[in-house]
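Hi support team,

I submitted a single chain yesterday and got back a structure, but I'm not sure I'm reading the token output correctly. Could someone confirm the output below corresponds to the sequence I sent? I've pasted both exactly as they appear in my results page.

Thanks,
R.
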Amino acid sequence: MLAVLASVSSLTAGTSLAKQLFPILGAQGASALRVGLAAIILALIWRPWRWPLRSAQLATLVQFLGLACAAGSAVCWALYIVLGRRLRGIPNGQAASLGMLCAAVIVVPIGLAEAGAKLMQPSVLLLGLAVAVVSSALPYSLEMLALRRLPPATFGVALASEPAVAAFMGMVVLNEHLNLWQWVVIFCIICAATGSAFTLPSRAANEADLSTTDH
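Hi R., thanks for writing in. Yes, this is the structure output for that exact sequence:
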């Protein structure tokens, strides 16, 4: 649980930092710098090529990257949790580093086309490195660690805190403040996500009981 909360805090802090890159590089350039540097960092730390992947693990890893292009955000988060747990047989960090490398192959060329030589400015690279560590390399590594140890419902409840943590980081890093109604909306989102995560196991158990009764 602490790993998930640390991941959420790191991710939202990095997102707040990344906002400062948008006026310089644009959204595509900022994404390229974040994903590209994070991929390099994770590859250097975890060296994913050291462990061969079985065909079943490779198929799950491909689904863990590709389905985000074909579904909505909520579906992708659900798949991220489910498929992430299926990768428990892969050593720590290998899934995160391989996933980030695949993302970099897609995102970096688009960012280079958008931002060009601006990506190579020392001040931009330094800020981009901080964003890559805080918003990608660290949180995704922590989430992979948490997915191996937490039930999906518990992991989902922990992730439900992200809107509130993001709002707090916005106040601290960017001096951006929400009004009362915006806080109410965030509270409702967290309650809905928490309630859904807690009721999912009971719904699944009821469906299993009904299936058993029918047979």
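A quick pointer for reading it: Confidence is low (pLDDT under 50) at residues 202-214. Let us know if anything else looks off.

Best,
Support desk
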